[in-house]
Specification:
Layout (H helix, E strand, L loop, with lengths): L11 H22 L13 H28 L7 H26 L6 H39 L5 E2 L12 E4 L5 E5 L4 E7 L2 E7 L5 E6 L3 H7 L5 E3 L4 E4 L3 E7 L2 E6 L7 E3 L1 H14 L8
Parallel strand pairs: 1-3
Antiparallel strand pairs: 2-3, 4-5, 4-8, 5-6, 7-8, 9-10, 10-11
Amino acid sequence: MNKKIPQYLLGKYQLIGTVTFSVLFALVYLNISIPFSDTAWFGLGDSVMFLFTLVFVAISILTLIVSRMLMYQSKRYFDLTFLTYTLWCIIEILTIAGLYTYLTVDVIDTDGTLLETMRKSVTNGFIALGIPYLISGMYFAIIDKNNTIRLMNYENVVTDEPQKADTSLKKITLFDNSGTLKLSVSPDNLYYVESDDNYIKVWYTDSKGHLQNYMLRCRLKTVEDSFKGSELVRCNRKYIVNLSKVSMLRKENDGYVLDLCNESIPPLPVTKTYTDSVLGYFTEQQPLMDPIE
């Protein structure tokens, strides 16, 4: 339980998908369970009950959204283990169950003791939210497994050169999170690296000059740290660009923009955080190449 949870459970799209699926599953389950519950008061007919139903649903969804946003941000400060992730999910369920109990006992004033109502609310909460949590986790685990298999099914290592290329040429090599060599590409053919949640896309031209991309399970931060001092420089939070492939550095109203030596690639923006490192390359490494104001 103290093992760090996989990053695919904390991805932006995975968290959004979990919340969306859980809300839909819970709504279907709660409506199906109405005839079998003596504490069910929600519904669409009565105007007063419908209002309370809307309030309960809105607060519950907001609770899940805020909770998952905090979970997404938490990975910047500490590592979530299976134990902390499980406790986090349990707290979400207990919070929503507590809200339902409060509305049932104090506001709606239905029959039944507080303890009994709370017990039934917690039970329904674990069914309505616990099951979709498990299903979502298994689904994303399968997707991640398929991506890993897809990456590993390539014959040996993907390269931009013909098989008889001169192996003495300088190459940029990229490894996945397990340390396995996945991509070898000449610096003359590499254009930029794009972040795609828990993966990166490496954009390069093959031996025929066609623009290709290769998806690799790796953090953009790892690439940035591995190639410090080289021509691969971070220009914003999403891109690392090969500055030797830049044809023009333009100054616009909202900052600098990089045009690459390939018309099919859209201009890449340079954010304020990375402006100094990008400008430093052109002023120190290539003094003859002045930025265009």
